[in-house]
Structure formats: structure tokens, C-alpha cells
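Quick one before lunch.
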Amino acid sequence: MALLTPTGKAGKLRSFRGDTKMPDKVDMEKIVSLCKRRGFVFPSSEIYGGLGSCWDYGPMGVELKRNIKNAWWRAIVQERNDVVGIETSIMMHPRVWKASGHVDSFADPLVECKSCHLRWRASELEDQKCPQCNGELTEPRMFNLMFKTFMGPVEEEASTVYLRPETAQGMFVNFENAVTTSRKKLPLGIAQMGKSFRNEITPGNFIFRTREFEHMELEYFVKPGTDEVWFDYWVKDRFAWYVNLGIREENLRLRQHEKDELAHYARNCYDIEYLFPMGWSELEGIANRGDYDLRQHTKFGNKDLSYYDAEANEHYVPYVIEPSAGVDRTLLAFLIDAYHEETVEKETRVVLRFHPSLAPMKVAVLPLSRNEKLTPLAKEVYNNLCPRFMTCYDDSQSIGRRYRRQDEIGTPYCVTIDFESLEDHQVTIRDRDSLAQIRVPIEQLEKTLESKLKGEPFEATPLWTTRQK
Ligand code: ATP
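Model of the adenosine-5'-triphosphate complex:
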């Protein structure tokens, strides 16, 4: 199995299958508890005792998730002339899943305990006994991972539909629509983000593997023969996306699938893996799907999906390169990578060092106290900033505690309004990472924050004086 370095050079051959090395980093319980405490993620239907493997995103989580999706959309669609976006329905014609192979092969061999009836993945069991009650197990049976439901009022076989287990098929069945309406030539990508559903046998590790999750998928259609070059391109491009958004490179690696591990449609596949607390695990898969999908839909849909290449004056069925990532799993990786504990003034400070573009809140406006003289100016500052940045306002408890709260949600900048502000019309900006503070005139605040959020170093300039804490 070849490993690629981020620059694409083939690395040393090493087997990673079954690698369970426990990394020296934050454990998942700390992340789960921070997520609950600070409003990132809650158990679904919590007041009813929760629902297995379903989670709800709270006020901070929803912002973080949106920022991740925006960053992906920006890199994949907005900044490229060769990719268009699409949003297709979750329920599709049942024959789509026959054509894609999901009805017949999207299944896992499971064994069932004859006494407690729990089901287990046969490949994950060490001996032939039920891990729950030590009971006897059945022979393995295939169990389809797609959720079934019925369309219309009658629950019968003819009205069975599936909740999609991936968004990709929406792009394949709309290939012709996208090419015709965009008036673009190949290579052309179609991108989509949206919910997918899989009745996973072993969900777990918080939001790492759930039964309802969001996909971010790109199907990039290319001329056969150019597919390996594009495959390489997308592996590197996608790896760089995570690094550019702040994931430490030593926590990422590429792993090529073994021949016997490849999905039935894939000619080649790399996983981008992240060093999660439970060990290296898949973050995103990039597959060369060849012409499998378009040919299957041509066959099952009775519709020619070949492409006419005017320049070469030939018809061909394009090959597809597919980078496929999960929003929730990406969010978990960004959370874990951002999590830091450090000692400041003999106290432990928990800080999420998010890339500014991902941070749920960009700025917090904090009047030094709830004093009635400070409130009007602080509110004015807040009102001016919130149309421009996600801004929060907090005037409860001591300023130190409020700083800690902002650190725990990863807010890059805190703006403090004190009694001097009333005199000199200046405020203090505190930097989340260095804890340095600068003083700026209120009329320069928005511009200053904007440049800092774009990456301008945080240091005092001659215009402003650095204040000691
Ligand atoms: P895994 O084996 O880890 O469940 P997979 O190989 O089945 O993942 P793909 O079908 O390649 O996953 O889907 C692409 C991406 O979608 C994955 O890399 C992951 O980020 C995300 N994903 C897939 N299944 C789930 C799930 N059940 N929960 C959360 N994210 C998922």
C-alpha cells in the first residue's frame, strides 16, 4: 500500500490496517463534555433520554458547521470555473439504488445473538460468542444499510423508497442537465452538500459515525485517460484544504486502499485520515470511480449518458473522480485539532484555536462591568459590529471568566470597553492565542478586526499603545 506525502511523492510502504495506536491527545469525553457545556453538540431528543447515534447542533455548533460548509463550497464551487453546484432530493427513484449497486451490495455481513438478538459485524468479533451475553450466534447474514420508507399512503413493496446513503447519485443522474445548462466543457465537476442516511451497525465515537449525517461530495467528470492525473490532483488538493484551515499536518495522512478493500465501483482510492483520539481513521475518501456510474445509469435508465467532445469530435463516457467528505466528521476533527489546554496564571485555560474563518463567533464585545455608564457605548460597539461579523455580547460575571468562556468557544478576538473608553473613545482588543492586547480607536475597530481575521499579525503598531494586563 503506497503512502503519499502531501506533495504527492510516494512514501515508504507501511501497513496501517488495524493500526490502533492511541495518540497522546485529548480524549473524546473532554470534547463531548465541552460540546455540551458550550453549545456545540447535544444528544438528540435529550429530554427523552436521547436517540442512539443522533445528535443536535447547538448555537455554536451550527455556526461552526456552516463555516465548514461555506469553506468547502468556496474552495470547490465559488473559486473554480470548472465546478457547478446542485441540490438534489433525498428520496430518489428506487431504480437509482438498483443501478448504483446499493440495493445489492451496500450491506454488511452480520451475525445475530440467538438469546439477546443483538447484531454484530462478523468481521469485528474475536470469537464466536455474543460480546453482550456470551450467547450463541447465527451464521452471518447480509444486512442492508439503507433506510427504507414508503411514499404515499399505502405501505406496499411498490411504494418503497430509500433515504439516500450518499449524495453522489444525485450528481450522476443530473450529469446531462448540468452539462447542458452550464454550457461548460469537460473536465466538469458537480458538487453537492446534504444529508445522507445509513443504518450503521456500529455507530459511535460521538459524531464520527452516525446514522444521519451530512456529506460534502464532488463528482469530477473527466476524459478517460486523464483520470489518473486528475485523481492525483484531487488527492493533493483535498489534503491541502484541511491544512490551510489549520489542521496540523502531523495529524493527517493519506492511505491508499488495498485492491481487496476497494469498493465495487472504484479503480483507485485514497483515504485522508486524521489522528482521532481512537486512532487514525478516515476523514475523507477520494475515489476514481471510472465510468461505472454513468454506464449503470445508462443501462438502468435507458438513456445514453455519453458526452460529445466537440474538440476531439468523439463521444465517450466520462470517468469520475470523487472526493467525498462528511461535514460532521470534519467538524469533529477541527474541534479536536483546535483543542488546547494550557496553564495561564496558574490556572488551566481551555482554548479552541480555530482558524478564524471557522470560529463560530469572530468577536465578543465585553463591557468591563454592567455599569450603566459603560452599557450604552458597549451596545453601540456591538450594534456596529454584528452586521459585519458573528459577534456576541456578554456582560455577566467577571471579565476573566468571560475571557475563559470565549476561549472555550474559540472566539479569536474580545473587545473590552472600560471607563477610559468613555474618555478616549478607544477599546482594547485581546487576542485569543497570544493573549496580547492592543488599544484601538473605536472608528478603526471594524477595519482592524477585519485585517486581523484575515491573518494580519497581532502586534501593537505605533498608532496604538499596548496595554499591560
Ligand atoms: P466509514 O467506513 O468510516 O464509515 P465510508 O468509507 O463508508 O466511511 P464513504 O462512503 O467513503 O465513507 O463516505 C465519505 C465520507 O462520509 C467519509 O469519509 C466520512 O467523512 C463520511 N461518512 C460516511 N459515513 C458516515 C457516518 N455514518 N457518519 C458520519 N460520517 C460519515
